[in-house]
Amino acid sequence: MKAGSAAWWRARYAARERQRPRPGGLELRRITQAALDIADAEGLAALTMRRVAEELGVRHTSLYRHVASRDELLVELVDHVLGEGVPPATGDGWRADLEAGAHEFRRVLLAHPAVVPLLTMGQLLGPHALRAREVGLGLLIRAGWEPARAVRIYLTVAHFVIGTALLGAGGSARGAGERAAMTELFAGLPEYPLVRRLAEPLNLPDGDQEFRFGLTALLDGVGDPR
Hints:
Elements: H1 6-18, H2 28-42, H3 49-56, H4 70-82, H5 94-110, H6 127-142, H7 147-169, H8 176-187, H9 193-197, H10 199-202, H11 207-222
């Protein structure tokens, strides 16, 4: 059974119902926080079961009661990160709350760039991910959106955030220096006249500006509930 699949999560929830905490024992939250600390400081390559055990001062075999493998640890790590998000409550209507939630989701992801590539490892079905779905869908349905339409809007916005975070945390991320270098490159390519003429505006927006523009365009297209 693949870690992170829907079947895996179903078995995971069932196992949690049966599992009884041991007084003074390890908790999954402590394990995933230690894993996050390592990933943030040293990258995913350094993240092993033994390294997490060292961080916690326990034997690595102690971790297996909570995560049976490194792959399972990585899936749980993603859900742990999603738990850092704060549900939106602007008081200015469904769109303002949805925009705030999207920005908060992106902020959380970009705060942990080493973890972002793991979003494609499995389905986002952990407790924190499902809490976000519950909040987002509830926001839209209470605003008057028909349930099937609310699902599409929620998933489209969530996938937009994930896609931009993958770009922003990966090798395609563009800081000021990279944008300047790309402008210089484009300006020296006469075989691409439009790219050359638009070299500066092509590299003017940073990731935050592009995200705001894209999110606004997306929600303008969604319109309002009828």
